[in-house]
Amino acid sequence: NHNYAMNNQSYSALWGGGSLFKVKGSILGNHYKVEAFLGEGGFGIVAKCRDTMTNRAVAIKVNKSDPDILQQAKLEIFILEQLRRLDPDAANIVKWNGFFHDGEWVCLKFELLDQCLWDYIGDRKNQGLPISEVRPILGHLTNALSHLGSVGIVRADLKPGNIMVVNRYESPVKVRLIDFGLACPASAVMPGDRVGTVGYSAPEVMLGLPYNEASDMWSLGLVAVELGTGVPLYPGNEDYDVLKFIIETQGQPPDHVLDSGVYIMMFRRGPENGQRLFVSLIKQILASDANQRITLLEVLRHPFFNPKSSPCIGMSAERPQNPCKAWFLSVFRAAGEKKVKNLFQSNLELLLFLFSPFNIRPFNPSGSQIQTGNQLDYSHCRHKCLCSTFAIFQYCFYAVFFFAPIYIIGLSAIGGINSIYILQRKTAWLGK
Ligand SMILES: Nc1ncnc2c1ncn2[C@@H]1O[C@H](COP(=O)(O)OP(=O)(O)OP(=O)(O)O)[C@@H](O)[C@H]1O
């Protein structure tokens, strides 16, 4: 939304859905002559028009011809119909004078107001308004919200861009609420509906909880601060950043709020910059139950170290000297290598254990084996009984795999020689 950045008079043409559709001087509907461009929002553009029948200036909001936006226009008309029950002057809401169609566009007719609060604050170089001015404006806004509450409407997108000053030269200034595109009956609020503008939405709206008039109260507080200081209290382009600010200044929302938010995971996860994976890794490393604790190989397989699944590696490429991450990488890589080395070593030992009968003296009742090279050293082994079991196993192994084949080969050889001898004798006898 860049309403506040627009210069009213500098546009001679109106744009709708990205294409030029009306120029200054052309007629909108049957008798509304376009005089100026007033602003543009997510749903459409607002033009200052002259009613050629009454010669009065009006504001006409032309909704973009997108099917979703047309649906939104219908909802706004529905709410405006509800608000007809209120007196706009007494309720500090914009006067609505119905709608008409111009080709594919839906055009809503409003009284012409002066400028939005963003522009009003901006004209004072964002230094903030004196309290004497803040007081009546805040009074009008509270009054407006209270009237909306009386007809069961939640405003849902209160921000300085949606509050208009009636006449900036009047003192004290009067303000009115405009833009009911996101307003809805309190009874029809859908938790998880993402409404409002980043920086002005209440935490419950951001988190996806059910919301009500209390959410408007939150936005009112933010508008009040902006009036007094000239700058938004919670700047940010993402809800995540805003919620972080809120938690810093207001503390964390209570658990029951956090636990029931539809979007809570989005906030718990946070933006994917590697920090989340780092924290998840550390949590697994610091599991107080040793059985639950992550193993070194699992550490190496953790997405924290995986450049494809973890953008934090990309981050580390931008900042290769991140000392903390470098330290973790080196420690875990070294530890992982050691584990692989240990694994290899123990396999090597097993091979030696099985195939080096002359070097290994597995069973020593004194338990004081002194070995050299790669051979097993039981000298410090506290599990002598286990070692004895190994020794028995070793003897069995020799019996089966070493002596038995020799025995079998020997027997076969003797048998073979014997057969040859018998054959020779038979041949010799036959020959005779
Ligand atoms: N009655 C009015 N008189 C004068 N200017 C108006 C009037 N209504 C709207 N404007 C101007 O047009 C801008 C856009 O209006 P509006 O907020 O209704 O549009 P929107 O598309 O619904 O915007 P948003 O994206 O904030 O929902 C306003 O910020 C304001 O500058």
Automatic annotation (TrEMBL):
Top-rank taxon: Eukaryota
InterPro entries: Kinase-like_dom_sf, Prot_kinase_dom, Protein_kinase_ATP_BS, Ser_Thr_dual-spec_kinase
Stretches that traverse the bilayer: 397-423
Domain Protein kinase positions: 32-305
Coiled-coil zones: none
Binding positions (ATP): 61
Gene3D superfamilies: Phosphorylase Kinase, domain 1 (3.30.200.20), Transferase(Phosphotransferase) domain 1 (1.10.510.10)
GO cellular component: cytoplasm; nucleus
SUPFAM superfamilies on file: Protein kinase-like (PK-like)
GO MF term set: ATP binding; protein serine/threonine kinase activity; protein tyrosine kinase activity
Any Pfam family hit: Pkinase
UniProt KW keywords: ATP-binding, Kinase, Membrane, Nucleotide-binding, Serine/threonine-protein kinase, Transferase, Transmembrane, Transmembrane helix
Protein name: Protein kinase domain-containing protein
Organism the protein comes from: Maylandia zebra (zebra mbuna)
